[in-house]
Amino acid sequence: MLKAWFAIALWKRVLGALALGLVFALVWPQGTPYVQFMGDLFVRAIRMLVAPIVLVTIAAGITALADPKRLGGLGGRTIGLFALTTAVAVSVGMLVAALVQPGIGAPLGTATAHALGDPVTPYQQLIGIIPLNIFEALAKGDMLALIFVAILVGVGTVVAGEPGKPFAALLQSTSAVLLKVVGIVMEATPFGVFALIANAVAANGAAVFVNVGWLALAVVLGSLIQIVVVHSLILRLLAKLPLLPFFRGIVDALVVAFSTASSSATLPVAMRVAEKNLGIARPVFSTVLPLGASIGKDGTAMYVGLLSMFALQAFGTPLTPQVYGVVLLTGALAAFGTAPVPSASLFMLAAVLSAVGVPPEQTALVVGFVLPFDRLLDMTRTVPSASANLTVATTVARWEGELDEEVYRASDYA
């Protein structure tokens, strides 16, 4: 039975658990308290992992950039462009959420409206980024402080040079171990989702699913805006290239990105279309695209910004300019540090929500609410990430004089 269970794809098990949770709540709503412990355990497992994942994966991601081939002029331009597209993607996600408002009225189980409490001045927010005690910040889950420490540790490791290589290897190894732990916890997702959905439906009825449709619509709109508007503007204004040859040439890569929901799995196809269809020289695409698979996360950034606003709308958190600023900053940093594993952005969501005062318990409710549907959303948001990688590669190649415009503008592709 165990073999048959694990032979089923996780997302299918999660959808089955969601359906069972719905039926359970509709048939026997009085029984939902008896299964609540599974949801509580799932919530605690998520809370346990968030802080170390944020600290280690961001630091490990920075040390991965220490490869001399990735640094220098080409690397600097590449990282700068990815930073720009990532920040804009978070803004796009927030804008779409403000327009569609998918979180308004979203019944997230027993979650209640959460105010920010006593107002915190920008000065206090700025000072609080630097913790007095790293371990205290880790224990409290102070995400802004942890992100700062992670960046500092990563940069310090790179600057240390040769003596820092053993520690960089330790960070990479620890990151790999944590991702395996995430995989183990994710195997328990069907049971957690069953309990969370059962309690949510018992408390609010089947209307709990209405807002998922609005959220999915917002993800599609955000992805389209990022590709059609943002990437097009970069190609036209910065690279000064026509758009039709680009989008016609990257279709294969976008299809693979959607079907696999993985930037890493898309990499071989992206390299082929970069050379054959776009005319990008090998030294450029062989450097930019692998780097983009690690940090080029436009789709994740857009989704983190969108989902953060969805959660804040659902919990009734006052949306002040300060909140928007913190979501933008932490969302961009969290997207850079997101591991290339399915649904990893849901774990990074906690870093953003924690920074604006949402407690881990409510963040876990959002994760449990969205996770059953996250596979399709993940497939959708991987497409703008793949498009961003090829947009940046094309623009950098144009700047470096490494773009064969005859190949780029050709109507027939090899």
Automatic annotation (TrEMBL):
One of its GO terms (cellular component) is plasma membrane. The chain crosses the membrane at residues 45-66, 78-100, 143-161, 181-202, 214-238, 250-271, 291-311, 323-341. Keywords: Cell membrane, Membrane, Transmembrane, Transmembrane helix, Transport. Signal peptide: none annotated. Pfam families: SDF. Its main location: membrane. InterPro entries: Na-dicarboxylate_symporter (IPR001991), Na:dicarbo_symporter_sf (IPR036458). One of its GO terms (molecular function) is symporter activity. This is Dicarboxylate/amino acid:cation symporter. The keyword Cell membrane applies. It is a multi-pass membrane protein. It comes from the Bacteria. It is found in: Cell membrane. It comes from Sphingomonas naasensis.
